[in-house]
Amino acid sequence: xxxxxxxxxxxxxxxxxxxxxxxxxxxxxxxxxxxxxxxxxxxxxxxxxxxxxxxxxxxxxxxxxxxxxxxxxxxxxxxxxxxxxxxxxxxxxxxxxxxxxxxxxxxxxxxxxxxxxxxxxxxxxxxxxxxxxxxxxxxxxxxxxxxxxxxxxxxxxxxxxxxxxxxxxxxxxxxxxxxxxxxxxxxxxx
Length: 190
Hints:
Porin
């Protein structure tokens, strides 16, 4: 009797777990966090890593254990080059593809995908960056590739990701690729 009850419990739990991953789902929320930025060391420049910030929105579309997660957030990337502090502010738009395992409000995610970074500087403000996103104007923007993982606990998510710069970004004294680690906390609104 105990074995039958145990087997029945495992079968029901497995059915609910697989059902939770098979049914199409949609989630939307806000996120905020910090990053640690580094630039490629080229030539004789001495560089130091510094902390920055990020904050914005995300959406997740999923089915069959896979998901697509577009995001949009403002990020501040800070570095020190030869004793001079440099700050990059941008609107970043990652398009992440990944998978999820887990059920009952607990789960782990893994993902990867491209990121387009719309620089906000003296030539482009927040409105212009948002306009470039809406018009799908990707010329003269910065590109990166994201790889990461996350943990979901009901409506909260914690993500850790690495962003590898694919294009060079101008910082006044030259240009270089920017790489960073992001640690963020997200809250699912619905």
